[in-house]
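Protein Record: Sequence and Backbone Structure Tokens
======================================================

Structure line: whole-number tokens from a learned vocabulary of local backbone shapes, matched to residues.

Purpose: to set a sequence beside its fold so the mapping can be learned.

___
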Amino acid sequence: MSKLFDNFQPLAAQTLTDIGALIVSTPGICGGRPRIAGHRITVHNIVIDFNAGRKPEEIIDERPQLTLAQVYSALAYYYANKEAIDAEIRSDIEEYDRLETEYGAKL
């Protein structure tokens, strides 16, 4: 057999990550918003960075506590729930603008 398969391990012998466990929502943490498991970094935070033009690799450079898999899972969650998350982000921006107008200073 080829040397290509000398270090091959069947999937059952490898530790696999359940991608469904990478994003969690917990009442009372980050307002119950979906976030990266084990962190207080929300899917919204990743989406805002991504929509600002940052590539996933750049996001993990800025947030070294995250893995590329975690960033991509946040983006996958976003695209699966895009309409709802975009609406929440718009609502946050509107609330920020309202408070800025009301208090006359950057928050």
